[in-house]
Amino acid sequence: MRLFNSLTRQLDDITPSSDNTITFYACGPTVYDHAHIGNLRTYITEDLLRRALRVSGYSVQSVMNITDVDDKTITRSQIEHPDAGPMEALIETTRTYEAIFKADLAALGVDVAAIQFVRATEAIPQMQALIQRIYANGFAYVADGSVYFNLRTYREAGNPYGRLVNVDYSAQARIDNDEYDKAEAQDFALWKGTKDGEPFWDFSLGEHDLPGRPGWHIECSAMALDNLDEQPITVHSGGIDLKFPHHENEIAQVIAATNQDFARTFTHHNHLLVDGRKMSKSLQNFYTLEDIKAKGYNPLALRLLCLQALHANELNFTWDSLTAAQNMLGNLGAWADLVHQPEINKATADTRLGADILAYLAEDLHSPEALARLAAETAAPTAELLRQLDALLGLGLAGRPDITPEQKQLIAERQAARDAKDWPRSDQLRAELSADGLEVEDTPAGPRWRRATP
Ligand SMILES: [Zn+2]
After folding, report:
1. 117 Cα: distance to centroid of ligand 1 (angstroms)
2. Can you give the pLDDT at residue 280?
3. Is the pTM here over 0.90, yes or no?
4. Packing angle between helix 353-361 and helix 367-375, nearest 10 degrees?
């Protein structure tokens, strides 16, 4: 398997550790609201990557952080639970959105069980230990009750910064906002001193007593090192907007603490646009999975739409494109349902289909070509082939139930009415089947049913 590596700016082979394991870290959500479909696209891509690695024969050890303490989660928790204590409010709000996030992933066909989720609030000691190592090595300093990463001493020691992007090192401002995105190097907060009314944890650093909470970047470094059994890890994944400064800072923290590199490959996934524009609340083009379900779409139609674009390219979401994806999902489902109708199509699907699709995915996740190969297959699939396809693509094609004996009886009766040229009866039975969600198409080999909705 090869991925475009942002560190080397080329396609690199993904090679496992000695025991055939791929260690995989993916930056997770900040759980203060519903995830929007742009975020969800990244998690779908990462699921596809894990599937391709697994089917390639690797065991994948996959960790994702849940950011359940930061400026946004704290603000939201105070609005939602004004009468609760700061920590209680934070946990209440973040657990709610974490559950929604995981339910969204599951609905989108993401293999949630394959991911080890780690909450920031449950990894505070590991983050503090990492900060202590960075501080002991001389790459952090205390100011105003907070701890900052010292880019100057870090770079003067000959350490790399800016491998993922071209960065202007001239500015050395100090900031404590997690979400700055200016293309310049800045000392960033590893630990933020507590403010009134905010949840906090005690922290002793040297002679300093520093009640507060972790910065955002330190989370990922600490959780990856603590939970993945390898350093450097094999693959680090995230949305393209995290490339700088977040990922650059993750790398710097790990090198500053351990004097060893963090990840061998960084893979970045591009944005989802809505009607050609970046999603924003003011443009009212800010969609969640709830919005998609409310309009009657199957969540897997969004998954399919995402797979229709190359992960490294922008994807333009429109409702028309989602409708087209839903239609394609329906066609794939109808094809999968041929497994229950062997009399309709006696040709058997190409047994190389799964291998061909894997070959496309193994080359930097070329999912559009994989889907085109799949859609071109018309001969009936076997149950085993459908299982292979689900293992790769997660589109829910395997294990679809057969229709009921009563429905089969209606189809047989309709055929008998047609044979007897009893058209009113035949039409009436067609209407009954349609009310049951089944469409019947008359083929030379007999009636073929398909479900009206995917
Ligand atoms: Zn991260």
Report:
1. 13
2. 74
3. yes
4. 160
